[in-house]
Design brief:
7-stranded mixed β-sheet; 11 strands; binds S-adenosylmethionine
Length: 312
């Protein structure tokens, strides 16, 4: 981590504490807006979110350029993204092993894969015994790559998470790199709500995500870097993520949300959010060596998100 990033990270932690109270209040605001009953958990019917309120802190940053509209930003990098990810040591020795462990025993389970891209997580879950996977992604180029690699018991659909509503009821929903594409708090809430309405009672959501507590950093050697492309102390700060491997790199845009904002949006959708750090496997430690493992642990700026319905 550079000095500058460390400084940003410290400020981030300080601000997180400062805003924890405000974010709790924000959660209540969400609940009033979208889930007015205090009664037992009732899945909210899907409807278009109302126009976005201006926040008192001017939080929303809307200066998003054309190429950052999520439906299009993956089109020019789809092949490079997949080629890099096909042979990504961090994915192989830490990120996906931790993700699959968090999914638990998936044998016989129905799975919804959000932001499936070319569908690698869903195929991994089928190998582990899942019964069926529905993959959704809004980008046609990524879906075309998924269809090239399609195996039995998978369906792919072009849908936008946050706007899709209920398409079924699933035992397990996975979102490998999903929630941090939200460009506003309402969009974040709408994504969590799409999780809540498609998840069976007692079901589990497992996502890969920016780590809200260490959102910036990374190194080329561990396969990814994340840099703020706006004010890092502002909720919704645009982030430039670059992935490296296979002799090339590919950059794309995500958005940084504070932990309290993630928690408030999840709670408003009827979900409880917890975070799991990545763990490098024993074989991975041998394969990659101590230096690489130390660098990964000190710099990785993503993590696993786990959600369940709030119990009433
Ligand atoms: C970093 S890629 C991850 C792909 C795949 N999950 C993986 O692990 O390789 C992010 C994917 O999310 C998709 N995406 C971003 N926002 C989305 C949204 N709101 N609804 C559906 N797909 C979205 C993009 O099109 C892209 O394919």
């Amino acid at each position: 981590m550079t000095d500058k990033t460390a400084q940003l990270f410290d400020l981030d932690a300080v601000r997180n504490q400062r805003t924890a109270k405000a974010n709790r209040a924000k959660g209540e605001e969400f609940l009033d807006l979208f889930w007015p009953d205090d009664g037992p958990f009732v899945r909210p019917a899907y409807e278009e979110p109302p126009p976005e309120p201006r926040s008192e802190r001017g939080r929303k940053q809307t200066h998003v350029t054309e190429d950052c509209v999520m439906n299009t930003q993956y089109t020019p990098i789809a092949s490079a993204y997949v080629a890099i990810k096909d042979d990504d040591p961090a994915d192989r020795v830490a990120i996906f092993p931790t993700f699959y462990e968090a999914c638990g025993d998936v044998r016989g389970k129905s799975v919804l894969e959000l932001c499936c891209g070319e569908g690698r997580a869903g195929r991994g879950l089928l190998v582990r015994g899942a019964r069926h996977v529905v993959g959704v992604d809004e980008n046609p180029s990524m879906l075309a790559l998924a269809r090239e690699r399609q195996v039995a018991n998978t369906d792919y659909r072009q849908l936008t998470v946050g706007k899709m509503g209920q398409i079924g009821l699933f035992d397990l929903i996975v979102g490998p790199w999903t929630l941090h594409y939200s460009m506003s708090e309402l969009e974040l809430f709408a994504m969590f709500r799409d999780v809540a309405v498609n998840l069976k009672p007692g079901g589990l959501f497992v996502g890969l995500n920016e780590d809200p507590q260490r959102p910036f950093g990374g190194t080329e050697r561990i396969g990814s870097t994340s840099h703020p492309a706006g004010d890092p102390l502002v909720d919704g700060c645009p982030v430039t993520v670059t992935i490296y491997g296979n002799g090339e790199s590919a950059a794309f845009r995500t958005y940084h949300w504070f932990l309290g904002t993630y928690r408030a949006a999840a709670r408003a959708a009827g979900l409880e959010l917890s975070i799991i750090p990545f763990r490098i496997t024993a074989e991975g430690r041998t394969e990659m060596g101590d230096d690489w493992c130390r660098e990964f642990e000190a710099n990785i700026c993503s993590c696993v998100f786990v959600c369940r319905h709030i119990q009433t």
